């Protein structure tokens, strides 16, 4: 939930002030931070790239390719936060929940539950 107080030019994101104990508590906050379809598209593309690089690293037995997996996923996600959504990636505060959120949103996009266009 976001509260905007126009007279004071203050925006308060109540979810951001809270510490999450479970992923199920975190995920609604994660979705709030990914409201724009283009942000979701960047995350989807980055996660897909990560999956491809992980499979490639396993098949070729080339562990350094895992660096490309991380760059693909985080690079696309962070670009979308800084330049499209204009917010701070949840990765910095909730690294594990954020990674879980990326994959959950990825599969929700595949099932049509989240829109990217």
Summarize the structure.
It contains 5 helices and 2 strands. The chain has helices spanning 14-17, 23-32, 37-60, 65-85, 95-110; strands spanning 2-5, 10-13. A two-stranded antiparallel sheet has the order 1-2.
Walk me through the topology:
Blueprint: E1 2-5, E2 10-13, H1 14-17, H2 23-32, H3 37-60, H4 65-85, H5 95-110
Antiparallel strand pairs: 1-2
Helix pairs in contact: 2-5, 3-4, 3-5
Cα distance spanning the termini: 24 Å
Low-confidence stretches: 8-12
Secondary-structure element order, N to C: EEHHHHH
Multimeric state of these chains? single chain
Adjacency order of strands in the biggest sheet: 1-2
Mean of pLDDT: 90
The helix content, as a percent range, equals 55-70%
C-alpha-based Rg, rounded: 16 Å
Number of domains: 1
What does this structure look like?
22% of the residues are buried. This protein has one domain (20-110). Mean pLDDT is 90; it is low at 8-12. The protein is built from five helices and two strands; from the N terminus they run E-E-H-H-H-H-H. 64% of the residues lie in helices and 7% in strands. It has a two-stranded antiparallel ribbon. With 117 residues, it is mainly α. The protein has helices spanning 14-17, 23-32, 37-60, 65-85, 95-110; strands at 2-5, 10-13. A hairpin with a 4-residue loop joins strand 1 (2-5) and strand 2.
Question: What structural keywords apply?
Answer:
mainly alpha, 64% helix
